[in-house]
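User: For documentation purposes, I need each entry recorded in a consistent format: the amino acid sequence on its own, followed directly by the corresponding structure tokens. There are two entries in this batch. Please keep commentary to a minimum and don't merge the entries.

Assistant: Recorded as requested. Entry 1:
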Amino acid sequence: MIVRLKSIFVLCILSSCTYQSSKTNTGNWPEYNGGPDRNHYSDLDEINKENLSRLEVAWIYHSGGADTVRNRTQMQCNPIIINGILYGVSADSQAFAVQADNGKEIWKTNIKDETFSMTSRGVTYFENDGKPIIFFGYGEWLYALDANSGKLVSTFGAGGKINLRDGLSRPGADKYIIYNTPGIIHKNLLIAGGRVAEGPTALPGDIRAFDVHTGKVVWTFKTIPENNEEGSETWPKDARKNNGGANSWMGMAIDRDKEIVYAPTGSASFDFYGGDRKGNNLYANSLLALDANTGKRIWHFQFVHHDIWDRDPPAPPNLVTIHKDNRSIDAVVQLSKQGFMFVFDRSTGKPIFPVEERPVPASEMPGEYAAATQPFPVLPEPFTRQSFTEADLRKDVANGDSVHAQMQNSNTGQPFIPLSSKRTLFFPGTDGGAQWGGAAVDREDIIYVPAKEVPVYSSLVPTPALSKTNPKEDIYQVHCGSCHGTDRKGDHGGSYPSLTGIGDRYSQAQLIEIINKGRGMMPALAHISKNEKEAVVAFLLGKKSEDTKIESQLSTNPYVITGYNRWYDSTGYPVNTPPWGTLTAINLSSGKRLWQVPLGEYAALKAKGVPATGTDNYGGPLVTAGGLIFIAATPDKKFRAIDKKTGKVLWEHDLPAAGFASPSTYSVNGRQYIVIACGGGKLRGQSGDGYVAFAIKK
């Protein structure tokens, strides 16, 4: 690794391993989402409603690496700022440090490791006896960098890095794992999860604590238990050998006083059919409260039993203190893609508001064992609509006859309808509801949640046998069709791009490399055979079938999903009535909504006089003691300041690319700044590489 060093400018005055609380951060933004509570909150109030009109761009840092031709790079990083230094990740996943008052680069990595493609949401800071360290993920590798220089800390792992795949294996598993969300520091431990694949060959999703000095594993919590371990009764025998996933990809929170780490977990693989994993499948789709010193489970709650909808928690939990029934309660809040919010006592796991197990539909698929009930929180009130019927279609929907006919032939109308061979609707869509940006919480027990309400449809079809007439297409449908569509047209939102005409954009060698390493949302398919990869590429490039024999086991699962298909009409707008994206304020003490407003707008509709409809969105909010919420997140490339009392937009500014990330705020020499990563690259938008910082005009 070559490090470009422009200057060294770090003031280190910390006396402990890391910042212990975000209740007061002395002008820093020291951890992912602001602090160990993940509340996106700052006590800074220099920027407020009275002087907001004077807010202007203070500096822009171009981090480099943006793919502005194909627009396939993103930046989801929530940068941290410590004592005047901002640490972030570039569009091509390089770590960097800049001076936080002017954006001048101090150092930036130039890592060339062969690894899987990734999108990083940030870095983790650790103070090591006056020698600060940055922990940073690059694909499957976890690096330790000297925070002053960006150079490798040679005593960590093998010359400054460890491979997260080490120790995670099972028969037939692929190799895909990336460190996409920053881990948690507790004493001398870095507690981390990771993103794994979502198909039948996924690695297990163990949560591990690494020694910050050596990189050695100190403890492991197995989210898929071994035989006879607690929780194994919710799986078939040898589940850990036969299943993967249940990984903490979304990030964690920690109560350092109680020494408890709160880790949400993902779905077990395969996401949409679980005939091979009969039972509730603990500890997938759960919130785990673990002893931060040992990894021992203290309590857990499972949000979805036997998940066959990919309804795992999308964001880190929020640690809050709420005031209810004349007492203060240390609580933990978890959002869901379904639009639910669960609130638990932080020590015991007891729900603060009632949670009811309600009957849900049975599965129609042969061999499937859908759970008979699912948990529904009575309060807080949902922050999205919970049903989608024909009455929810727009009156002005284009190609209306076709849309209504499709609706009448779809399974819809309530949560938790299992996928079948018939078209089934997810509402909210497969990725929320809430998404990875999470929620902000102020000191007044108010939580602010961005969400989206765009319907998605899909179905299950039998895994195709390898035919003699179209073997290449059969292999494509198994490995690629679930995301890019059986017709290769991708999804309308652009998260999964169209592959039609891909030969005009990529060579055969480039396509093989993408299959091997992944890109953006796409995991690597390194586990499939060489001739399967060549067959997929030949199909995409329209090459005639050669006489060479194609050998493939295709899939161990009897069914494949037909794609994540956002339902838009022919004019390009969601078929349902707005809002399509929202920001909601909920009082955590009462569980009641205070307000909900559309988040985002379409310029073409605005020009016609249509009120703001809200849009699909990715990224989180920032709330400050100045009474403001700052949020980008929308494809209209706006950065907005919103009155936290009313939801009214008070200020907005155009960004160079969409800010699909969460903003940070900090103070240097008494001046408050707000910074947002503008990486674009989703929802068919342009990619960018800019970090844009704002401050009050002097």
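Entry 2:
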Amino acid sequence: MNSWAKLALLGGTAMGALAFLPSGMASAETAGTVPQPVQLAQAATSTITGQTTTPTSAETPLDAITVTATKTETTALEAPASVTVVDREEIERSQATSLDDAIRHVPGVEMSGGPRSSAEQPNIRGLGGSRVVIITDGVRKNFESGHRGRVYQDMDLVDQIDILRGPSSMLYGSGALGGVINMETKDARDLLDPGQTVGGQAKAGFQSNGSHRLGSLTAYAAPDEHVDFLVSGSRRSNGDQETGTGQTISYSNDSSAAGLGKVKLQGRGHELELTAESYLLWNDIPTAPDVGSGTSLIPAERFLRENSASLRYSFDAPDSELVNANATLYYSDTFIRELVTARGTTNGRNDSTALETMGMDLSNTSRFDFADGFGLALTYGGELYNDSQEGKRNGAYREQYPIAEATTSAAYTQAEFTLFDHLTITPGVRFDQYEREAFAKADVSESELSKKLALSYQATSFLALFGSYSEAFRAPELTELYAGGVHFSMGPGGNNVFIANPDLRPETAENKEIGLAMSFDDVLSQGDALRMKGSVYRNDVKDYIDLDVKTFTTQAINVRNARIEGGELEAGYDANRWFSTLGYSHIEGENTANGVALATIPEDKLALLAGWRIPGWDTTLGWRGALLFGQDQVPSGTDKTEGRKVIHDVFVSWEPSEAALDGLRLDFAVDNVFDKSYRRHLASQYETGRNFMLTASMRF
């Protein structure tokens, strides 16, 4: 049975089962939760519309709601895992043009490939590339092709970003060795003011470094309580950027367009949401865009298109706790065309790289109350997805990105036991079966079992302790298994060629983590809030897949066992007018077979933010600082990043309360205020220098 037939059969079975659920059966709130150890105040400040009204009870970023960590609704602080939520307000304040801009201050998270945004690849706790699962509106973004980057998303369309750090295959399957980045786009009801049924927003922005320009229009409506929709489009363009020394960052210019459409129907506990998104990019960029500058760069004229769509259904009726069902069908299509002209001649190449992904994810949570203080939330489900790739060069099939197909099916279950309202025990297990096939190549079929056990204990009214053991795996990529053809030319000496390796074993990881969460209210003044969360971990990775580059051959092989250890700390304080956050991460990693340091370990990072809300001026202003400690623990042949670097940013947001200016928002910021020339350890290129940024938006 082919993958389309499997998908259709599973989808029909799941939708049929959901359709015949008794109408009287229901659950608690969608993705609700068994009472968690730390009870937090839920504040009323809107970070979506940007209203600056003073909340009656302060909240910090650690109070943000997430379902990414456990697939049941909880706050980032309560989750027995390391998860950070970046909300719409922070995205607006940072005037993010890329995912890197939005999350670069999150502890344990870095982006390699920068500052060329289309070359970005996420790195979580020292594991990057396809070792991080990326999801947008329920759609897995599985594209991976060497140096070409992984993240193609306009941040103007994004509402919230959840970053789950640490191995997470029990819920997310192959690829979650480092963690998960889960993005949700804008929603109509979050943009509408109370009592408003129809609205819109126009936005324009400018950034000085590279003369970046942004224009976007959004329309949204909720005619009644049963239906809402949103349509949004944006256009960006920028020239080459400059470092702090004034050096041009070669081929850092690009032009992009993005569109988003979303329709939601809801009633009687049912919710159906259809989302479609498109992203287009035009730029001149090196064929290996994550390298530095220099005359040796081979430029390519690139066009990129990524289309995706998801249909999400949930059932949440009010009379039962046994059914809290969710089903997602999704599709994603990534296509890249690169035109390369050889130096000074008409000889060149026309390359195309394409990946098509389709899949589904089904889950349900059943809740049971056995006695006072003793409850269970049982979450169970399945997933099926298929990747189909194809590469061409000058019209002929390209062996370096071979025609191949991958199919993964999985089933999982997770139980959240709550005992005496103080102890939560969460065991879980997932079984994955994956198949890989390519024309005239050996098929691969393997299975993996991923387990998790997490505990959270409310030690005192303000302190909770948590610990976890979690496993993850990454199945070999199609190019790692089947790539052939020329890797690079050595001139008269011949060529280096790829050698297929269908015997590759999957990478596996075992992570042990312990931590604590602290919650205080009314600390320095009435209504303020202080939250802190920290953890230490050790992640043992086996059968790590790497490229073995020899004189005439290149082959993906299982080369080492690795150990990554580290610690993270997050804190947030909000006193209504004053607010601040802190994030710190320290990571070490080595090949345990020979004691050599790993090349993918980022430098230590300390990020601070301090802000002040001035209601009389309808203004929020603040400062953000990042201290990068450098990285000298690297393998032989890898550049060290010497010295500490302190980067300062400032920001001001103004939302006038006058009726005549209702809906206006101005954001002004200066990144890298002192024009520091610096390079982050995982990037081969120096970062951009001072950048003045201004964005104006009007909601109506």
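Summary note for entry 2:
DSSP finds six helices and 35 strands in the chain.
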